[in-house]
Amino acid sequence: MMSARRIYMDHSATTPVDPRVVEAMAPYWSEVFGNSESSHFFGQEAASALEQARQTIADILGCQASEIIFTASGTEADNLALRGVAWAFWRSGRGSHIITTPIEHPAVGRTVDQLQELFGFEVTRLRVDGYGRVNPDDVATAIRPDTILVSVMTASNEIGTVQPIAEIGRICRERGVLFHTDAVQAAGRLLLNPEDMGVDLLALSAHKFYGPKGVGLLYVRRAVPLVPAITGGEHEGGRRPGTVNVAGAVGLATALRLVEDERPSECARLTRLRDRLIEGILASIPDSRLTGHPTERLCHHASFAFLGVEGEAVVIGLDLEGIAASAGAACAEGEPEPAPTLLTLGLPPEWSIGSLRLTLGHLNNEEDVERVLDVLPGIISRLRSLR
Ligand SMILES: Cc1ncc(COP(=O)(O)O)c(C=O)c1O
Asked: Which residue of 42, 172, 211, 264 has the fewest C-beta atoms within 10 A of its own C-beta?
């Protein structure tokens, strides 16, 4: 029997927009609608809202407003960071070596692949340990005289592991190498201060923290060379051309303010729910394991591998019970594909096909966790009996 209420436990995929954010954005659709680059009154009004949003974000991140570039997504912010820096160095002939990890989101991973394959950049992909953590000493060893950029995600969308960003940042500073981090999963869950983290470029996406879809940002420290990844007019100082989504920028700023203000209490609440979920699943399901780090992990993130079970089948089983979750790997032509990240962590393929991610948020309470704990063991044992 399906429970009456649907349960959403996929907050790392996206989040519902907070009604307070919707309210803050409301005037910027049809009342204050000007193009922020127009010099007339309508443009000035939009520009003033845009600059206020930029300042709010800068105050939260502890940086200058001029260091924030609005983009249309987290993906675009990562692309701008990587291509922007790589092309700037390419132009000046000052090196072509990039250091990253094998477990980045495709927004970083595929962009680096393309820089390597089409533009001839050399790439070092650092090894990660069984929890998906980078050893900062490996970064120090990998840096060469021609290294232009290090890119390591703040926290993993797949396994929730948080990286030692400040330590890597310190090494990059000492060695004079630029450092980019994809912090898309970290907003509202970790304190984000580029100065303390030692990062030069940092990407965020509003829809991951109760803001609207279709707006992100890139923090770029002053004086970091950046060639625009898309070309056009003068918006965002020419670094990200295209008419700016003012309503989106206001929504992003409002959402960031709210999640940052509520972070201590919300993270404590979610940590309790997460730990109950992890403990309950590991205790009631044989041949199950937590993926990612047991303690250095995002407060809302629980991820698992189940021996001999396809993650996608578990997601379908949960969906039939009214519970929305996600799997780390998709089926290709009917054959279960192991999740590349889990293989990288050293999990055997028979474990790596069975990944499940449950990500908590505003929409969840204790009852939801107990409901998952009630139905998941049955789903896994039914799937195992079918093999
Ligand atoms: C770690 C990480 N980076 C980048 C992205 C891409 O963000 P967007 O959906 O805004 O393009 C995501 C989204 O899943 C993510 O989890």
From this structure: 264
pTM exceeds 0.90, yes or no: yes
Q: What is the pLDDT of residues 300-320, one digit of tens each?
A: 999 999 999 999 999 999 999
Nearest atom of ligand 1 to the alpha carbon of 75: 11
Q: What is the pLDDT of residues 246-265, one digit of tens each?
A: 999 999 999 999 999 999 99
Whether residue 267 sits in one domain with residue 207:
no
Structural domain boundaries enclosing 57: 19-259
**Any idea what the CATH number is for the domain that residue 160 is in?**
3.40.640.10
Single out the residue in 211, 226, 259 at which a domain terminates. 259
Look up 267 and say whether it is catalytic.
no
Task: Map 35-89 to HEC letters.
Answer: CCCCCCHHHHHHHHHHHHHHHHHHHHHCCCHHHEEEECCHHHHHHHHHHHHHHHH
Does the CB atom of residue 248 touch ligand 1 within 6 A?
no
| Amino acid (1-letter code) at residue 277 | L
Pocket test residue of 185, 204, 245, 300 for ligand 1, highest count of atoms within 8 A of CB: 185
